[in-house]
Amino acid sequence: MRYQISGKQIDIGDALQTHVQDELGAVLQKYSQRPTDATVVFSKSGHEFVCEVNVHLSSGLTAAAKAHAHEIYAAFDGCAEKMDKQLRRYKRRLKDHHKDRTEPVELFGASSYILASDEGADSPEPESLQPIIVAEMETQIPSLTVGEAVMQMELAGAPVLVFRNEKKDGVNVVYRRDDGNIGWIDP
Predict the structure, then answer these.
(1) Which protein family is named in the record (predicted)?
(2) What's the structural domain count of the chain?
(3) Are 171 and 141 spatial neighbours (Cβ–Cβ below 8 Å)?
(4) Are 110 and 178 within one domain?
(5) What is the pLDDT of residue 111?
(6) What is the largest CA-CA distance in the chain?
């Protein structure tokens, strides 16, 4: 398994890197026999340390966790606990998903845009109706079933997931509704 451990304007020592590899490896070994790579990013927010972990599993799914603490080791340990809890909850579904799928999840390229926000309701009328694009990035759209898409959204902790529906061969969206349920848009 590949680890990418880095810090945003924080020096990450060898002891912390070893601790991360040992602890995260133990968590992933319990629930997922073949994770492909893990990205761990440490940063500082005010007086707290922040740890973000993204793990790509061989089934094509991605699990994500984030934690804050006053000490950097405690931030990682909190993140590892969240990852452990997520993978424990989805262990059966992850194994069933991997058993039914003979090939990894197929990904399609797409463009992702970040648009500038309005500066409030009392802002002057814009000159044109074209939105101002702040950033343009490449993103990947996975080809999943609806159940796999909901599981991927839950594992990643994302509010919305755009995916290509394997059954109907069209682009669909699943999202978390304000009432706590999951919404599914199938055009």
Answers:
(1) Belongs to the HPF/YfiA ribosome-associated protein family. Long HPF subfamily.
(2) 2
(3) yes
(4) yes
(5) 65
(6) 57
List the structure tokens of 111: 């463009």
Sheet holding 48-57, edge to edge: 2-7, 35-45, 48-57, 62-69
- Domain of 131, CATH number, reads 3.30.505.50
Do both 112 and 174 map to the same domain? yes
CA atoms of 125 and 72, how far apart (whole Å): 47
Let me know: does 149 contact 62? Beta carbons within 8 Å: no
Domain match, 24 and 52 both: yes
* pLDDT given at position 72: 92
CA angle 129, 135, 140 (to 5 degrees): 110
Q: Residue 83: is it exposed, middle or buried by C-beta count within 10 angstroms (0-12/13-18/19+)?
A: buried
Per-10-residue mean pLDDT of the chain, 187 residues long, equals 88 90 86 76 92 82 88 93 85 60 64 64 62 74 84 83 84 88 86
Q: Are residues 86 and 153 in the same domain?
A: no
Q: What pTM, to 2 d.p., does this model score? A: 0.60
Q: Is the CB of residue 165 less than 8 Å from the CB of residue 186?
A: yes
Looking at the fold, whether 53 and 75 belong to one and the same domain comes out as: yes
Calpha distance 165→148 (Å, rounded): 10
C-alpha span between 93 and 16 (Å, rounded): 32
Do 21 and 86 share a domain, yes or no? yes
The whole domain housing 38 covers 2-98
